[in-house]
Amino acid sequence: MTGAFAVVRLPAEEADAKPEKKSKFKPTAESKEIQEALTEFNSLIGEWRGVGMTKRNSTSGAWKESAQWVWDFDASPLGIRYEVKDGKLIEQGILSFDPKQNQFTLAVVSPDETERQYVGQLDEKKLVLETTTGEEEEGYRLTITLLNEKRTLVLHEKRRAGQTFYSRVAEVGYTREGTRLADPGAGEPECLVTGGYGSMKVMFEGETYYVCCTGCLQAFQEDPAGVVAEYKKKLADRKKDAGK
């Protein structure tokens, strides 16, 4: 790995206060190239609320967190800062780009202060990043899926030393702060993908469902049977919990 990446851990009180300070950023040819590459992730900028699940579509071991993505021109190299509150896997990180290697980089710090360096490529709407350890050491993979302006997924995976395949650790589904969610008890149409307010009708096997945006429509079209099955399970679980 050619670049050096530093993650600065801010004290809680400083992070909350966010005092204004004069930027020390001085544009260079390299920084402009990095900034241009990172514009692919402008949709991440802002505040998000997330739900982490160790098992897909299961509340067992699930947690809630909030996150914020902010451009950081004083980072070295410059990047987009990723800050997580109440997260179990990441506390903060810096997403950047290495022009020499033509690859994206992500330096993260976990809640237990473990630091990891990831590198990878963007494939359409998916940024797939892996740690730079060799096969003789355990490795980690992180996939950021940019569904749309309102929804983002961050999948965490791990492989054991000597293995080549990855196993799921958990996935965090983020919804942009301020996005309207359907009220399950108010009879409003609910997006079967995200639980958002359903504004578009979709059909599957003669039944009508709803999605909230074009990104969820795409997710539904890619696997309608799987999405509908997960949605029906969620409704069944909700009904079961309501009866307790």
Briefly summarize what is shown.
This protein is an alpha+beta fold. It contains four helices and twelve strands; from the N terminus they run H-H-E-E-E-E-E-E-E-E-E-E-E-E-H-H. It folds into two domains: 12-176, Calycin beta-barrel core domain (Lipocalin, Beta Barrel), CATH 2.40.128; 180-244, no CATH class.
Features:
single chain; about 240 residues; Lipocalin; 2 domains; two-stranded antiparallel sheet; 4 helices; about 35% strand
List the helices and strands and how they pair.
Layout: H1 12-17, H2 29-38, E1 46-53, E2 63-72, E3 79-85, E4 92-98, E5 103-109, E6 115-123, E7 126-131, E8 139-146, E9 151-159, E10 167-176, E11 200-204, E12 207-211, H3 214-222, H4 224-242
Antiparallel strand pairs: 1-2, 1-10, 2-3, 3-4, 4-5, 5-6, 6-7, 7-8, 8-9, 9-10, 11-12
Helix pairs in contact: 3-4
